[in-house]
Structure formats: structure tokens, C-alpha cells
Give the backbone structure.
Amino acid sequence: DDDDDDDDDDGMGVDLDQVEKEVLDAQAVADDQGNNVRALKAAVKAGEATKGQLNEAIALLKKLKADLDVKRKAFDEAVGGGSKASSVNKEAFRQALQNVLLSRCFLINSFAIYGGVAGLFDYGPPGCAIKANIQSYWKRHFVLEENMLEVEASAVTPEPVLKASGHVERFMDFMVKDKVTGECHRADHLLEDKLKALLANPLEGGKRREIEDVLARLDELGAEELGTQIAKYECKAPETGNEISDPYPFNLMFATSIGPRGDTKGYLRPETAQGIFVNFPRLLNYNGMKLPFAAAQLGQSFRNEISPKQGILRVREFTQAEIEHFVDPDHKDHPKFAKVADLEMLLFSREKQVGAVKKPVLMRLGDALAQGILENETIAYFIGRVFTFMTAVGIDPNRMRFRQHLQHEMAHYACDCWDCEVECSYGWMECVGIADRSAFDLKCHAEASKKEMTAWIAYDKPKFVEELVVEPISKFIGKTFKKDAKTVTSALKTMTEENALGLKAALDAEGEASLKAFCGGGDFKITKEMVRIERETKKVSGKFITPGVIEPSFGIGRVLYCMLEHCYYVRQEEDAKEEDKKTVFRFTPLVAPTKVTVFPLLQREEFNAVCRKLCDSLIDSGLSTLMDVTGTTIGKRYARTDEIGVPFAVTVDHDTLQDNTATLRERDTTSQVRVGLEDLPGVVRDLVNMRTTWEEVQRRFPSQGGADGGKEKGGAAADYSLRCP
């Protein structure tokens, strides 16, 4: 059945190996004929062949080259995103989108008047509004609907916190340098670009599978193997073509000092998660000491990226939205899983990634859980919730997949990890990570801070359990050790069972023993009267555990950019000239920067007065509203608002003054209805909040007539399109 799914994924049922072989065979035949033509030209000059023979050979060569071109085009179609033609189309798409984003002030290069800084961007008015809307919906979808505890922790983090979490030692990427210019590049990105370029051409033997396997394992390559692969595929510095150094680690955190003396070392946080972990005891107490519960945080994080190039997809300051769901590690079922069990999405399991056909499979979450592809209900539930969030903000579900981390790709403490990846012009981009982090973070902070990071789990019924009891006898310890009594007592209480039993055996045999031999409590002589070590049967009603953590982590900027790509197209009307093409952003009303625009048909005070009053009513209804009173034609004003993705437009005209109705236009269909002024705020509010649909509005209110400005070819044709591999 999985094989059937793989065939369906291809879309055209193309056998890439066969297509590649046909190209190579056709190339070989054309090369041989080219050699024949060259030989015949020499023979004609020597009088050993006729011009007729040469012309026949040239005609055959042209035919063979034409056949090669057909097969090469079929190959380019089969490899999709890796082909040269596709790369050119994607670059054109990116440039067109970038022009709109900059010209309409969605994005601004930070400090542009000073030349800018790579990896830093500002959001202009529409970009800022879209980002705020995505963040607002994230809070509604997760914090509100899942009853999460929201926190806002400090971005400046003392070094001990990030030492405990492992970031000081391990938060790094591998870097290489141009041996001539000293320019720095991220090693795995250079290798990835080189391998993708190779895949864009026909390859002999098993080279394609070999390269695909390296790409699949790219994230797990260590410095040595990464260097070996870079040398094998002859990677060079991209701008200069110079030789590059061997890869070496580079820590991505921004270091700083805290306080005027500069003697307290700190970092700008590389993630928001640690601010939640260190506050776990307070949050547990706030939640009534009960598990499970989730804490959420939305804020800025900072990473000193080696070579940021992909716009807002890879930046040095970015907005993260992270959830830490604390749960009993032995009970990861979720009471609301049934609500997402029937959701279908593309799942790219570990097995599929290392198999011969490396493609995701469309599956129900319930089936994936039943088949063991997903580890537990909680991680499956959050995958479902991430899917519904992403589609609600405008991500195309057919260009989104959930990819499971390979075994060696995961951190040593992780149980399972899935990335929500979205296809854009840069390829498949990780936008959300959903990880089962086990109890690693809380245990690390408990050990480093010497603070309790546990929760009490009550049993359904009391249990009788046999426990090893280590009871220090205070009167003897205090009398003997005086000021060191507290150290000795603490060392005895925190002994492992194995060490406690060893100490008991030594005391029974000798009557005394060195504490240092059994724990880190110092070189103290312990006598038998100082401690009681016995097994006892106790009635217990629960136990203390260190909770496990399921963590969905969102890169808001990445979600936003991929949504921009998925929503962008160029509208082509019939018989329109090239310069009359109209850019449109197909934003959902949920994230659109402005929900509605209001236009007077003509620049007359009686129209403007109605527009101002209507704007006040719309704003009072909580709708972001623009009023456009420029003297341009109504068609040009519609086009201008379509370009920033405004979903609805209201036009006040002569009829408005007579019957108190106005034209309400929908952006994507460009169809219009006539609605009373008193009804307009409520109708638009219901559309924006997705309580009603445009089709329902069209049934309720009379049509104004045809779409504005002419009929479109195919409804909404996109000149720049991306093919989903």
C-alpha cells in the first residue's frame, strides 16, 4: 500500500532512473555522431568522402540532438526543483516577490542608509501587521484554546543557565573559510548546494542514489565526515571559486557581559525555551501542582548565523513561539487526540527517508499512531494542531510535510522529533519543530542549580512498595562531626541505592567505613550507629517524577515568509498588456494586514462624509480599515489594495446617497454585492473571523454585477508558479 502511495506522489508516474538512462544513452549516440561528422568533414577536404554524405550525417546529428533535447526536458521535469530551468523560474519568482515586499514596505533591510547588515531585517507597516496577526492567532490557537500558561522571560541569559542546557558547549555549526579572502561560509550549506547542482544533471551508475543518501544524512555529519564529503565533491568558495579550509565548529550565541564591571558573563538567548524550564517550579505551583500542563512564550531569540542569505528565513534576530508541554513520561496519551485523529497530511517518516523512494506519504494521524510511525498521542496531537494552525494562516497543505528526524540526527536525549517543513522557492524549509525532549532539560537545570525540578504524581490507588531507607542518626553525627554534620547528612540522604547497600555491607562487616568510598561526601569515618540502612515495605500514594517535555517550536518569520510565497500571484486579465498585470496577495482574512478598504467613487464631499462615518463604524467593530481618497480610478485603487492583500473593499457611490447601501468587493473573485451601511460592519467582521463565507454573503445580498476591470483567464492565473516536487 505504501508503494501505491509512492507512485501517486510522483504525479506523473515517471521512473527517474529510466529517464536518466535515456538521456545518457541519447547523449552517447549524439556524441558518436558528432565525431562522425567531424571525421567526414576531414574526409571531404581530403577527397575521401562526398558533400552528400556529410550533409546526411549532419542531418542525422540534428535529429539526434533534437531527440536529446526532448529527453533532457523530460529529465528536467522529473527532477523538478533541481533542474536548471526550475531554478531560473524560482529565482524569477523570488525576485518578483522581493520587489513587491520592498516597494510596498512589507520588509526593510535594517540600517539600510548605512549599508545594511546581513541577517537583520525590519518589518514595515503591512509586514508588521501580518506578523502581529499571525502571533495573535498563535496565542488564540494554542495559549487560549489549550489553556496554556504564558510567560515572558528575559532575553539576556547568565552563562550558568546555558552551560547547564548544553548551549555553551554544543550550540554550534561547522564553518569553512575562503583560503584567500578569509570569507566565512557554513560548511553543510556549501555541500548541500553542490550536491543539488549535481542532481540537476544526468548521473551515471549509482551516483544519484549516493548523493541523495548524503543529502538525507547532511544534518548528522560530524566535522571529519563533512570535510571528507566537501573534498570528495570538490566544493569551493561560492563567490571566488577559491579553495576552502577544513570545517571547524563555531558557536552561534551572541556573548555579552552583565553589569557595569563586566565580570558576569551572559548571552543573548538562542531560544526562548530555557526561560520556561528555569521557571518550572513556579509554574507547577501556579498550576496547582498538577500534570500535565503547558507553558508558552513568544519573543525574540538571537543566533550569530555564519552566512545568512535567505532573506528572513535565516536571520540573526528572530521571533520564536515555543511551547513546553510537561507530562508524566509514562503517560503520554492526550484526552483531545480524537479531535485530530482524522486529519490527513504528508508524513515523511524515518523509514521513507532512507528507503529507495524518498517521498512523504499522505496519512491520517490516527493511522500513523496505530502503525507506530508516531510515538505517542501527545506528539501526534501537537502535529495535528500545528497542521491546522499552518493551514489557517495560509500555508498550502499540499506543500507542507512533517519530516521525522533520522536516528542519528536527533539529540541523544530526544525520544522523537518531527519538523513541519514547507516548500518554498528555497526548497523545503523547516518552520516548526515538534520534539519529545524527554526530561533532559529539567534534569540538567536541577543538577546545576541544586533545586528540585520534580512533580508529585498521585496513584489511582495506594501501593505497597519495598524501599531502601537511609536514615542518618542526627545525635551521633552532630556530636562527631559538628560543623560538617550537615554535609555528612546530605551525602547520606542522596546516596544511590547501590552505594547505600555497599556502605551497609561495609558497616556490618567492619563497624565503620569511609564515606568518601561510597559518595562525594568527603573523607569522613562513618560508624554503624550513625546511620540506619534497611529495606522497608511502605504504603505510598504517589511518587515524585521529573516530567518529560513535548516541545512545539515555531519560527514566526519563516512561517510568515512561506505564507507570503504561497499567497503571492500575478493576475492576468484577458487582452491585458504586460504592464497591466496585477500583483495580488491571497492572504486569509485572519492574517491580512488591513481587513477592509473604503473608497468614495468620486472625490466629492458628500461621498467622503459617508466614507468617514463608515470607517469609524468598521474600526469600532475591531477591523483594521484604510480609506483611499486619491483621485485615481476605482480599478487602480482596487489593484493597489490587492497588492497588499486586503480581502474586502467597500465603495460608496451615487446609489449610497439614495438607499444607504454600498458595494462590497471580495479580492480573489473580484465579485461584488450590495450591502446596507448598517449591516456592513457585521458582515465584514463575520467574514474576517471566518464565521461566514463569501459564498454565503453572495446568497444573502444582491449582486452588484460582474467582476471589476474585466474577466480573468482561469480565475486567477499566476505568471510565477512553483512546482511542488
Observations:
- The two ends are 21 Å apart (CA to CA).
